[in-house]
Amino acid sequence: MRSFSQDRAGVAAVEFAIVGGLLAASLVGVLEVWTMGSRMSQMRSGVEAGVQYVMAGGRSDAEAQAVSLAAWSNRPKDGAVDASRECRCGEVVKACSATCTGDAAPAVYLRLQASTKGGSLFAERVIQHQQTVRVR
Q1: What is the pLDDT of residues 108-127, one digit of tens each?
Q2: 116: closest CA among 105, 124, 104, 108?
Q3: Distance between CA atoms of 82 and 64, rounded to whole angstroms?
Q4: C-beta of residue 84 within 8 angstroms of C-beta of residue 115
């Protein structure tokens, strides 16, 4: 038994297995973060294209949605963009047909929201990004 405990053969292989496992786990973690960051960046680019369409004078919510979808590179099959309008008098949400104090028309905002399921090795979650732009 004494000779077995003093035998150093194979120590390097055991150390390599331990360190190699830690390096592999670190690599998988870095790839996960990079993949999620890349998906978020592509999603943001699509939404920003729709916002730019509106800021350049585009009036159609459906067209802003279509521009966002077209600009979303590598869009997953379940990737979606929703366009919705909201009217506000100051910070208070009102119906778009309502008037604000002093018979002023409410400010109109368009919200573009993109979403997809972010599949990863460890968990699946919903990834979302939204931007709101004042239309009127």
Answers
A1: 999 999 999 876 667 778 88
A2: 124
A3: 10
A4: no
